[in-house]
Amino acid sequence: MSFLEYNRRLRFSASYDVIVAGGGFAGVPAAVASARKGAKTLLIEHYGFLGGTSTAGLVRGFWATIDGVGNIFAEILEDLRKLDALFGWEELEYDEEYLKYHPPGLRFDEEYLKYVLQDLVIRNGVELRLHSRVIDVIMDGDKVQYLVVHGKSGTEALGVEVVIDATGDGDVAALAGAEFKKGRESDGRQLAMSLHFKTMDTKENVRPVLPKGCAEYKSYDDLPFSPELRPKVIGLDPTETEDLTKAEILARKQVMSIVHYIQTRVHPTYKLVSTATQIGVREGRRIIGDYVLTEEDVFMGREFPDVIAVGTSQIDFHDIDNYGDRGSRREKVPSYQIPYRCLLVKGIRNMLTAGKCISGDQVAQSSYRMIPTCAALGQAAGTAAALAVEHKVGLRDLDIEKLQDILRKEGMKFSGVPPFSTPSGEAYPTTLDIQKARERLAEFDRLATRKTKEKKAPI
Predict the structure, then answer these.
(1) What confidence category does residue 446 fall into, taking pLDDT thresholds of 50, 70 and 90?
(2) Where are the alpha helices (DSSP H) in 211-290?
(3) HSE, side-chain direction, 13 A CA sphere, residue 285
(4) What is the dihedral of CA 94, 423, 367, 337, to 10 degrees?
(5) 11-185+284-409 in CATH: which number?
(6) Least trusted range by pLDDT, from 79-93, 162-176, 253-267, 364-378
(7) Residues 30-87 pLDDT 10s
(8) How many CA atoms lie within 13 A of 26 on its CB side?
(9) β-strand 133-140 against 143-151: which pairing, if any?
(10) What is the DSSP letter of 331?
């Protein structure tokens, strides 16, 4: 590898109390919470819309308990509800106990969500820069002094008191020289990536066409990712440009193959409508903080004196080594607390993380990366940042009890929050659900084979 050195003058544009990088479900609550506390706040997002994985990645569901994660998340749900853009899972039969903690609002319309999030940040006085990305960090010792941001108008430097990295992959923290972990301890292998897509029922048979170079899936066992009919990419690093490019290419080819499978084996009247703007990344960098949340902490339902959020989702660990689902782990866990120290970035004085890149091990991350938990982490980070600015104290010198009192008053619960589950009380999906899915698709295969023989032509 060779290097070049060059010098250039940067336009210094403005200074902010708090800059949040990343406009997903961690970044938006972080920015809103900061602005509501009176901090001059900027939110930077590299897409032309907000929502992150929930919109750009078409991950249109809340896979964690939606109660007790803060008033900002609750406002988002209410705004979606007013637009008739919040739904339940039609295939589940809700019972009274389930509805107590999981009202029918686990699915949402991603197009309305883009507007709801945009409106939320604007009406709360957050300055928003879309089509922009943090490309470098200028340090003063262990303090971030400037963020170097590139957008359509060029490259500029922005002064900042507190930075919140809500990029999902810890991009800004990594630029600042923070320590991080990626993947499995033994070899760095990370959780699988998936490219979501949408289909629609045309109500009449469509002509299946398989593009040249795309694999033909003829049975359930051929599918790259079971039981869900969606792509799966393993063995690539989403924080490396070349690997991420390969993942996008491979996943899009898999979409073509899966749609062809659906049309010929399952739903002959369905057509492809859209694919996600980007592949879904379950795990990138995990930034090392003052505390690393562990698998043991999660399974023990551990409590911490500096709790700022509660995790409730199952362990959703997608197989790292195989294209099937046999190496995945989906285990129900008790609700567990997440300490403020997991948001503090080791070795950097004025930076917090929020969302899936906070400090934790790989298994713990497979639980706390869910959207409601990320929203709670974002609101906690934004509140902490604004308090630090207001009281002119370091992030590590905050009055934690005061931070917790504020979060409680704003709808955050640190105890008594039930773990996420389906109406049956099991983690979703259970082994039984997977087996049912396998049997259902096997039946589709059997019927398709019989009909093909009868008609001497594809379905």
Answers:
(1) low
(2) 241-261
(3) 22
(4) 90
(5) 3.50.50.60
(6) 79-93
(7) 999 999 999 999 999 999 999 999 999 999 888 898 889 999 999 999 999 999 998 8
(8) 27
(9) antiparallel
(10) E
Task: Report the 10 Å Cβ neighbour count for 319.
Answer: 17
Closest CA to 342 of 372, 316, 317, 309: 309
pLDDT above 60 for 296: yes
Cα dist from 299 to 9, 14, 287, whole Å: 51, 45, 21
Residue 107, SS3 per DSSP: strand
pTM (2 d.p.): 0.90
The answer to whether 345 and 173 have CB atoms below 8 angstroms apart is: yes
The SS3 assignment for 332 reads coil
What does the DSSP 8-state code read for residue 262? Answer: I
Q: Which two tokens stand for residue 52?
A: 């992150």
Domain(s) labelled CATH 3.50.50.60 in the chain stretch across 11-185+284-409
Question: What is the b/e burial string over 342-355, where b = at least 16 CB atoms within 10 angstroms of the residue's CB?
Answer: bbbbbebbbbbbbb
Tokens of 286: 């995990």
Spatial CA neighbour of 350 closest among 140, 192, 193: 140
- At 420 the pLDDT is 82
Half-sphere exposure of 302 (CA within 13 A, CB side): 14
